[in-house]
Amino acid sequence: MPLPILYSFRRCPYAMRARLGLLLGQCQVEVREITLKAKPAEMLAISPKGTVPVLQLPTGEVIAESLDIMLWGLHKADSPAAQQLLGQTTSAQSLINELIVQNDVEFKPWLDKYKYADRYPEYSQADYFAKASTFLVRLEAQLQQHPYLISPALSLADFAIVPFIRQFTAVDAKRDLNGDFPRLMAWLTELTSTDIFQHAMTKYVIWQTGNTPNYLLGTSISK
């Protein structure tokens, strides 16, 4: 049976999120790395909006939202470990959803303006940094309560949010955030150092029709 096909762009935090979700669920897919300057016609035919990630299932169904791809991967796994990541109580599930929504709806727009401040001259880069940092304050407070965002154990929220915090800190690599956000920076270092995150950041050649397929799962990886 044909495998699902994931159209991805390595540096995009949404695509990172999708790859992490599929790895957590141990879902084998064909990875088609694209370049944003020349999006393949095959991807645009199934998802005209032209953003990544896009997951095409063998049935023809298309999943074009990163969080939905994560959830598909974890539900596909149907394992106790996957269920733990999704939250084992209603309150945990609610908090997971709340943090991810805040990341996507509030934090990411400020992150984009902070990263591309020259495109948004209404305010200074320092102003955009301050606006974005309100989310970091909340995450720091969460991590003062336990090692991970929701509880002493990793959850969907940790993996769904870490690509965006990574992107935020990379905007100005010389800026030291350890003073204001020590727990968050330790959390970021820990998660981005894991085997699964490193696996998610595998470099692939740009996909073209007729290329030898690249597959997401390789040697065994640690969760």
UniProtKB/TrEMBL annotation:
GO cellular component, one term: cytoplasm
UniProt-listed Gene3D superfamilies: 1.20.1050.10, Glutaredoxin
Domain GST C-terminal: 89-214
Domain GST N-terminal: 2-81
PROSITE patterns assigned: GST_CTER (PS50405), GST_NTER (PS50404)
Pfam family, one: GST_N_3
The protein, known as: Glutathione S-transferase
Organism: Shewanella xiamenensis
